[in-house]
Amino acid sequence: MTDVLNPPVTTPSDDHGHEEHHGPTGILKWITTTDHKVIGLSYTVTSVLMLVIGGLFAEIIRFQLATPNANLVSLAQYNELFTMHGSVMIYLFAGPFAFGGLANIIVPIQIGAPDMAFPRLNALSYWLYLTGAITMLAGFFTAGGAANFGWVAYAPLSNSINTPGAGADLWIGGLLLTGFSAIFTGVNLTATIFYLRAPGMTMFRMPIFTWNMLVTGILILLAFPVLTAGLVMLYCDRHFGTHIYSVTGGGVPVLWQHIFWFWGHPEVYILALPFFGMVTEIIPVFSRKPVFGYKGMIFATLSIAALSLGVWAHHMFTTGVVLLPFFSIMSLLIAVPTGIKIFNWIGTMWRGQIWFSTAMLMAIGFVVTFLIGGLTGIYLASPPLDFFTHDTYFVVAHFHSVVMALVLGGMAGLYYWGPKITGYLLNERYGKIQFWFLFIGTQVFTFPQYLLGLRGMPRRVAIYAHDPQWKLLNDWSTIGAILIGVSTLIFVVNVAVSWKKYPAGDNPWDAHTLEWFTTSPPPHHNFYRLPQIRSERPTWDYNHPEHRSLGHGKHPGLGDPHPEVVED
Amino acid sequence: MKAEAKLMLGLGLFFGLMCAVYWNWSLENAGGVMMFAGMLLGFLPGGYFYWWSRRMKARPEDDPYATQAGGAGVIGSFPGTSIWPFTMGMGAFLVVLALVFGIWFLIPGLGLVGWAVLGGTSEGRRGGKV
CA Rg, chain B, in Å? Predict the structure, then answer.
């Protein structure tokens, strides 16, 4: 262990005086590291790999559905595929990519911390995530195949009579490991943000991404333990003869749905908030303006998080045993803070000098796609509409609009922070081609599914009736899925083409926040020096002293020599 | 520390209100209990932060006028590298495999976890390398 000192005060003439870090290299470095940047990079690479695996499952599913009675895969294999597609994407890609990958790397740098608060716990998180992913996917190599009860594992379908075999147990085990990994990351993020901020970095000067990760961390702590407890009880039902979720022994099957969705709906925001944060960092930088409504954004994030704890049973409207008005009102209320966010993103771009880089295009694509997914979510929050569309492709289309928006946001994050993490920019031309494939593909993929749902096509079916309309819409959806697949290939090609080719420099985007003050990639323990922090844009203030931002609100105190508010 | 305290207490208060409304209206216990636990998760750390915030002077990171020099000094002890997270992760992996493939996996699994607990603790006490 080494004692870490705060970096020295910065004066403009400071040059990089620094201590070198000597550690192991190669595989030993990967195994023994406690550096949040290396761990975060491992997380990012692993989760993008999971995106590719889950995406391959999705392509197989879409090819199977392109014709009504296809037999590309058997019915049993199809069940495994859609179960593992959902599980891999939700449990192993979206969350870990955001809070384990980018947040792990960026949050400590954004607040001027040398590392996460608990570096060894952080490393343990990664190993639990990796082994959890291996455990869950290992189901494919067992005799009975992988788990096949849907990613929600509803009781009593998930009990040992309806779903025997090792695949389901491996699914539970993998989820236990990744669940603990998420909890530890939540602890780490919260503690880091509460206790390791640089001097002057008050709570209301933190970048919005860091704010969103703080709220995500708190939501993880609320939600994941419930899922872990539920899984332990499910395992006991399967193997130790308890009857917690089975009617025969006096249990309540719908209890699983309560527990699962009490985790599952906050989880939606655990997935979404980090990407909201990324986009909120990117849009101001490429609009050459401060973010519009900083405190409103934070208020919106907090209200989304607070409300998200009270909406779980909108997934259970059709069970007939939940309080419809309460959950309907709460679900509709979430639209208000989400609307504030979308308003603020547009307000930030309004009259800005917009630079349409790949990151900005992806961020705008995120806003558009998320708006579509969010608006259809408002329909689904209304019980009469939900009764009509429940378990149809309308729901599938709704949440795929949302999660594909997250993929766009994640790509925006990779293009924006990739240069900080690796020191090299990605090729912009390939990036823009990738954006158009991804954006158009997403809409072509989801729009037909909305129509399919309204025309009554159920979810989770491998074959369907010969109906020319259904076939046509399914074909369009499959074309969209192919476009999305091609966009992923373009990304891989882009990484290969721009490998160590375009050096980024410390601050290629003339960005606002602290991570752009240090070198790319940042040194061990992140900073050689730190600027004075007097607003939520310390790097901008340092680089543009003539246009310093006065924090939010109009209080010309703070001993600031340039109290004017910056308008471009 | 005050902002952190207000944040957590505010969340706890909101969850508490939601819990009261929901539990009295629906009479459904699972959700009521879970929301009650959510309220505690807001109040426990929030109360702790509030208690401390009244007994300490503002930290440099809470002070809008703070200078970098004001925060100088040791801010923590961070391990350079450590093998114990990996050891514990592999141990936990084997423990989970014991749930599926046979109880004997527990022997190496718990062994590795225990070894990592001892190793990690002593590393934290004396400072150590790989």
Answer: 22
pLDDT digits (tens, 9 = 90+) for A505-523: 899 999 999 999 999 899 9
Of B4, B79, B123, the CB nearest to A203: B4
For chain B, what is the domain count?
A: 2
Please indicate if any CB of chain A lies within 8 Å of the CB of B24.
no
Q: Based on the domain organization, do B6 and B43 belong to the same domain?
A: yes
DSSP string, A447-477: HHHHHHHHTTPBSS-S-----HHHHHHHHHH
Helices (H), A142-207: 166-195
The answer to whether residue A264 is domain-embedded is yes
Question: Across the interface, do A222 and B86 touch by the CB < 8 Å criterion?
Answer: no
Q: Are strands A2-5 and A424-425 parallel, antiparallel or unpaired?
A: unpaired
How many structural domains are present in chain A? Answer: 1
Residues of chain B numbered 75-114 and touching chain A (CB < 8 Å): 75-86, 88-90, 92-93, 96-97, 99-101
The pair phi, psi for residue B60, each rounded to 5°, is: -55, -35
Q: Where are the extended beta strands (E) located within chain B?
A: 74-78
A30: in domain: no
For the cut 60, the answer to whether the pLDDT of residue B29 exceeds it is yes
Which residues in chain A are closer than 8 Å to B22, comparing Cβ atoms? 310, 323, 326
Tell me if A31 is assigned to some domain.
no
The ipTM estimated for the assembled molecules is: 0.94
Option in A8, A200, A302 nearest B60 (CB): A200
Q: Give tens-digit pLDDT for A78-112.
A: 999 999 999 999 999 999 999 999 999 999 999 99
Closest alpha carbon within chain A to B61: A199
Is B73 within a domain? no
Residue B70 lies in a domain: no
Same-domain status, B16 and B46: yes
CATH code of residue A103: 1.20.210.10
**Interchain pair A525, B78: CB under 8 A:** yes
Closest CA to A99 of A231, A214, A264: A214
C-alpha distances in Å from residue B82, one per residue of A11, A30, A188, B75 = 35, 11, 17, 20
Domain that holds residue B91: 84-126
Are A21 and B80 a contacting pair at CB < 8 A?
A: yes
Q: Per-residue pLDDT tens for A41-79?
A: 999 999 999 999 999 999 999 999 999 988 899 999 999
Residue A135 sits in which domain range? 37-547
Q: Among residues A223, A226, A215, which one has the least CA distance to residue A275?
A: A215
Within a domain: residue B75? no
Examine the domain organization and report whether B60 and B99 are in the same domain.
Answer: no
* Confidence at residue A7, expressed as pLDDT on a 0 to 100 scale: 58
A169–B85 C-beta distance less than 8 A? no
Q: Is residue B24 situated within a structural domain?
A: yes
CB contact under 8 A, A120 and B99: no
Distance CA B31, CA A42 (A): 37
Residue A553 placed within a domain: no
pLDDT band at A413 (very low <50, low <70, confident <90, very high): very high
Q: Return the minimum-mean-pLDDT range out of A7-16, A166-175, A319-328, A541-550.
A: A7-16
Instruction: Indicate whether B58 and B14 sit together in one domain.
Output: yes
Residues in chain B with CB shorter than 8 Å from the CB of A533 are 66
Q: What is the pLDDT of residue A204?
A: 92
